[in-house]
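Query structure, 355 tokens:
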């Protein structure tokens, strides 16, 4: 920062001094206007605002609400949730249509969707609009519905992760089957959504990343206490993935598998499970260790796609993953809520045409 001041910015420094004369008066114990030294020693803005977020979080959680809404809000305050709200729509990857964005905001706030008001059941799976209100706030269509678009939502997040590894020059592969030797005849056994080669892992095995996402407001998640314990739903999704994998390991024994299973569990707020956060930290570590000595981390200076709020590796890819996931969820909800509208409203022609 000092370099910025020293390099022909005398004009700014003079202006700061002038301002200091005006504002450093009155009965404040310390100078109100920051000096250059004070600015340099200040904690980062994110650190300063932590306190405000914490107070607000406690306040929001104290309100009276259903267990579902409590689980949703708790999940919304975890790492990775709502990162899409920081996106600046300068790049296609951070853009969405306004009607989709509206649904995204309504879902994020846990509102009952006005456009879903008349729905009594899901035409896909027959689920009824019950006290969980999952149909009316759209969550039913993103996770629990058998006819929803779970696979598509899953795939967009997988694709961003794959693209991220590619951007690091890592030869990752998508949807790799045949990794379990005795099970290879069955195409369903694909332990890796993205297979990261051994050369890019900490250990001596390739990493079989397996993306999964889960709803903290579902009946099973609530039974596990997702409204009281943060990231409980993601922990459960991770545990289930490992349980299946461990059964496969037993079937393969004594042959040792050539990969390490790494489930990446996300809650449908975007929140990353604890183990997923560990994976993310390992990606960041790899990226910083392999960056050239003295090379800038600024995507702008590297001539890469960037925005003001997504100008380094972490912010750019966190926002990319978050936006792709939540936008796809909202598009799913939009599609299915329209499909589930009572018949007389289909096409907008009916008893309301003269209103
Ligand atoms: Zn359904």
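Result returned for the query:
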């Amino acid at each position: 920062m000092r370099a910025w001041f020293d390099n022909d910015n005398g004009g700014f420094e003079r202006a700061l001094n002038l301002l200091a004369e005006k504002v450093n008066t009155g009965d404040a114990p310390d100078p109100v206007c920051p000096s250059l030294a004070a600015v340099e020693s200040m904690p980062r803005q994110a650190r300063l605002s932590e306190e405000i977020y914490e107070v607000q979080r406690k306040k929001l959680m104290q309100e009276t609400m259903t267990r579902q809404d409590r689980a949703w809000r708790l999940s919304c305050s975890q790492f990775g949730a709502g990162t899409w709200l920081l996106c600046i729509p300068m790049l296609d990857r951070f853009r969405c249509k306004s009607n989709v964005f509206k649904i995204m905001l309504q879902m994020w706030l846990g509102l009952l969707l006005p456009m879903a008001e008349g729905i009594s059941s899901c035409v896909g799976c027959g689920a009824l609009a019950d006290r969980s209100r999952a149909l009316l706030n759209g969550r039913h269509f993103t996770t629990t519905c058998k006819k929803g678009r779970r696979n598509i939502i899953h795939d967009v997040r997988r694709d961003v992760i794959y693209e991220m590894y590619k951007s690091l020059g890592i030869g990752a592969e998508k949807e790799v089957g045949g990794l379990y030797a005795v099970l290879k005849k069955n195409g369903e056994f694909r332990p890796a959504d993205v297979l990261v080669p051994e050369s890019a892992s900490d250990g001596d095995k390739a990493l079989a990343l397996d993306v999964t996402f889960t709803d903290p407001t579902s009946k099973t998640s609530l039974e596990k206490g997702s409204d009281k314990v943060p990231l409980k739903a993601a922990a459960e999704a991770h545990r289930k993935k490992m349980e299946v994998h461990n059964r496969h390991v037993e079937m393969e024994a004594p042959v040792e598998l050539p990969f390490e299973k790494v489930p990446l569990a996300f809650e449908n707020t975007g929140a990353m499970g604890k183990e997923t956060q560990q994976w993310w930290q390992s990606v960041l570590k790899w990226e910083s260790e392999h960056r050239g000595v003295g090379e800038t981390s600024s995507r702008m200076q590297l001539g890469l796609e960037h925005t003001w709020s997504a100008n380094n590796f972490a912010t750019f890819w966190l926002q990319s993953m978050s936006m792709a996931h939540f936008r796809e969820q909202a598009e799913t909800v939009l599609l299915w809520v329209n499909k589930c509208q009572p018949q007389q409203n289909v096409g907008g022609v009916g008893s309301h045409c003269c209103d």
